[in-house]
Amino acid sequence: MLMERFGLKGRVAIVTGSSRGLGQAICIALAEAGAEVFGVSHGPSDQTKKLVEEAGGRFEYIGADLGDASVLKVVVDKAVEVYGKVDILVNNAGTIRREDALEFSEKDWDDVMNLNLKSVFFLSQAVAKRFVAQGSGGKIVNIASMLSYQGGIRVPSYTSSKSGVMGLTKALATEWAKYGINVNGIAPGYMATDNTKQLREDEARYNEILGRIPAGRWGEPSDLAGPVVFLASENADYINGFTLAVDGGWLAR
Question: Could you tell me the pTM of the whole model?
Answer without folding.
Answer: 0.96
